[in-house]
């Protein structure tokens, strides 16, 4: 199997894992673990969110990443420190000499012997979900293929995060529709009416009692009694 096909297969497996994850925390953990596994030069990986100008680590491959983020907060600088960051991708090939965040870079290089960083926004048109950061030893630890893999990983994660939130939101609506459907069925059976008439009955009860439709349905399903409509 070629390297390209292998990567496609790995990303297909990862996409399925994202979809099967129980929640956002599991998806984030899968992403940082995949970064270390798929990118040879990646020693440490993390997902960071900026809230109120402070870096918060949401997921990490090991204990180094949270310390790196705490240094961004302590020193007031770093690729994830800006709350209104616009750069989708930040690449640092020589952390010890990079002038953008020289204080933070010097500390991270000195304390952890990290020389290279890739920092990628995880976002879709619906919002930003955080920043995926990869850390490697030595200068030029990441090549163009590594960057492409990191961007693909960030893209897959962003889509999974957006879809997960939408599905969770639909889950509430779906639960409500399920309860209303159960109540409609009981009304149809008890009153000998069709689905439209049963829904109209529920809406009348909702209006007359100033109660939400789903609450009316929940009460009918719970008590198995029909209020006056």
Q: Unreliable segments (pLDDT under 50, ≥5 consecutive)?
A: none
Order of helix and strand elements from N to C terminus: HHEEHEHEEHHH
Sheet with the most strands? 5 strands, antiparallel
CATH topology of the largest domain: Beta-Lactamase
The total number of structural domains is: 2
Q: Which class of the largest domain in CATH terms? A: Alpha Beta
Question: Could you tell me how far the N terminus lies from the C terminus, measured between alpha carbons in angstroms?
Answer: 67 Å
Mean pLDDT: 89
Count, helices = 7
User: How does CATH name the architecture of the largest domain?
Assistant: 2-Layer Sandwich
- Shape descriptor reads elongated
Rg calculated over all Cα atoms? 25 Å
Q: Strand tally, please? A: 5
Q: Look at the structure and name the CATH superfamily of the largest domain.
A: GAF domain
Biggest sheet strand line-up: 2-1-5-4-3
Textual characterization of the structure:
With 229 residues, this protein is of the alpha+beta class. It folds into 2 domains: 166 residues, Beta-Lactamase; 54 residues, Arc Repressor Mutant, subunit A, CATH 1.10.10. Helix content is 57%, strand content 18%. It has 7 helices and 5 strands, in the order H-H-E-E-H-E-H-E-E-H-H-H. It has a 5-stranded antiparallel sheet, with helices on both faces. A hairpin with a 2-residue loop joins strand 1 and strand 2. The longest helix is centred in the C-terminal third of the chain and has 48 residues. The protein is elongated and about 80 Å long. It starts with a helix and ends in a 6-residue tail after the last helix.
